[in-house]
Amino acid sequence: MDKRQRKIQEGISATGTSKFVANLEKRKQRFEDGLVSSHHSSRNDTPTPDANDGPVVGTCQKLEKNYFRLTSAPRRETVRPLSILEQTLELLKTKWKQENNYSYICDQFKSLRQDLTVQHIKNEFTVSVYEIHARIALEKGDL
């Protein structure tokens, strides 16, 4: 029996009805409702971004920027262009050596990688960003 089946079984035996299964059904229904409403929406004011629309070319000039999970297409003014991202990496390397603040560095690297991703930047710089972040994680024992 796998973990999920065991949880379902434990939920049923402990309470007589499974709260886990009920929550699972609610999530399933919300997901299905979301699919139906997004595909059959009559609203045309916010078109759904297509992954094939091409990269967003950033204009943001901030070196440091907190990571936020994207829930819609990013705006150009919130994405940093490659030249700024290169400066950001140098700043992050310096800050890591000076401050050794792992949660801050992780947040900044996630933001940096997100800006690379939305602009479809895949080059040697991108590789170095991922390698440096991985080295820092290994240094802190974060596997």
From TrEMBL:
Protein's UniProt name: SAC3/GANP/THP3 conserved domain-containing protein
Source taxon at top rank: Eukaryota
Domain SAC3/GANP/THP3 conserved: 65-137
Region Disordered, residue ranges: 31-55
Record-linked InterPro entries: SAC3/GANP/THP3, SAC3/GANP/THP3_conserved
Source species of the chain: Cryomyces antarcticus
Gene3D superfamilies (alphabetical): 1.25.40.990
